[in-house]
Write a structure and sequence with these properties.
about 130 residues, 434 Repressor (Amino-terminal Domain), 6 helices, 2 strands, globular
Length: about 130
């Protein structure tokens, strides 16, 4: 687990990957296995596990209330909450970008990475990359 999440969150898939990263971070901080989809759904108050799967896969963007509950479950910091709330807002209010379009945009010469830091209170032992996230 890395100290910081340095990937852009410009697509639904990248948003899901950021949520998945927080899920892994939560497990690492607490020294336990990742919460199952059913455990997360039960803590979401009436949510079904398939909905959680869709959030984590990036096929569905959670409502502001559902996102806030997920961030509470995953013990996200204030900075992480602000970052993901802004990313969620941008995803639902701006035209959708495809992963290919984001890749093309971020590979232009002189382009600065559009990602933001999600700081955590645990230290990494590896440099893993998350599927679907550059």
């Amino acid at each position: 687990m890395k100290d910081q999440y340095l990937h852009p969150v410009m697509t639904r898939e990248e948003f899901g990957a950021a949520l998945q990263w927080l899920r892994r971070r939560h497990a690492a901080i607490n020294g336990r296995p990742e919460l199952s989809l059913r455990e997360i759904a039960a803590r979401q108050r009436g949510c079904v596990h398939n909905t959680i799967r869709n959030y984590l896969a990036g096929s569905t963007v959670p409502s502001p209330q559902a996102l806030e509950r997920l961030l509470t479950i995953f013990e996200a910091t204030g900075e992480q909450r602000e970052f993901l709330a802004r990313a969620r807002h941008d995803l639902v209010t701006k035209p959708a970008l495809t992963a290919a379009a984001v890749s093309a945009l971020t590979e232009w010469p002189g382009c600065i990475d559009a990602g933001a830091l999600l700081k955590v209170g645990t230290h990494s032992q590896g440099g893993e990359r998350h599927a679907g996230v550059r």
